[in-house]
């Protein structure tokens, strides 16, 4: 069935010589307009002007008639093929459905734009505009308001706890006189209920304030973006000035930020295809990389420059990640997880769900992931494979740990889950890496589950544009008694060599992008030990040599 045919068009008209006849071939369907074709025929055959209108009318009727006839013929041939079974009816239906949905408005599918995706594009545009400073100041103002509410909550709960403690001490002193055991139990239950009620009250206020700030922030960002797009400069400038004028004054007692030890290196990896990367050795607490560190400029409280860099790279290909060592319980109630959750709640996250909701999503996904893992372990047992991915590198795991693994009730050593943040100081993504007491021993190897998981984390960083990653060099966040000088040097050497091998391995599968690895050591480390660890870097990594040009 042809898509076009050529037909002869005949036109008879009167001229001074008598009757004249024009016969020309015309391609059906007509590619150009009838007016254009008539103009070309007039010039080519020197036609008189008085026949142009009639020629255009006859040509239009001819092309319409022949085009309809060609379509009818093609349609009849297609129907004949369909009746004979030479055309797949399902494929034909899909093609027609797709054509109608894409071309006909009545049948088109209404696609609603994702509000968060729209907000991300708007925010990325504004954060790279003159509104940058105002955006950060607005976020900082909201953070100070949230911090004030949290301070009031802590004060109220502390007062309530002290009151309960005093009542309990008085009751225990008069046990057997005016208080019986049942009275003590009732008093403890009443104290527990009062504490739960107080915590619930403050949690509701914080949640309400957080949602209100998030809604106001999104509305403000969209209004400023609309003002900039409409070139409404006075309104745009007025919004910026209004926010800048509401910045809080400096506090009477300035917040002192603890200094941290740092040393940076530029290294080369690879023999033939060399890649250049940056190493940084840090001595500070891990949460100092997450906690906001405000300071004053001209009597006004403003965020530090690190926050500026983090905000500008939020929707970019240069993200920052952090490995946080946690236990095998998926909650935020104890230890460093509680401290990290406290840092996250100091300010509202305007781009991602809060930590509690993200952990809830991880918990829901954990059941499916655990089912896959149990099926894989069962398959390995059936195949006689006795090697477990989660076997302890030091061989010191106990029976209770093995029982937990068989039940699949908890996370395993080496498991990790990810949370995303936009309200932290120097971090966008946090990898919560599960470790146990075995990392405190001095005989772990490169096959330890925690070290193997660091390899997987580095692979994810290479894959998803996390250009900066902070790794706990000693696989611990606190200094303990067993961490002697030989212990620290041995652990640092192990992590240095393993990370070097992982980066060389991953560089072969990705682009030659310069990345930054930050090795973090606990705050209590002495300056002498920090210097010894720093001196190990040139012996393990190939440093970039400084080019010295001498002129005579």
UniProtKB/TrEMBL annotation:
Segments carrying the region annotation (Disordered) are 381-404
Compositional bias segments (type: Low complexity): 381-394
May I have one GO cellular component term? cytoplasm
Taxonomically, the superkingdom here is Eukaryota
Q: InterPro entries from the xrefs?
A: Fy-3
Protein's name according to its UniProt entry: Uncharacterized protein
Supply the source organism's classification. Eukaryota, Metazoa, Spiralia, Lophotrochozoa, Mollusca
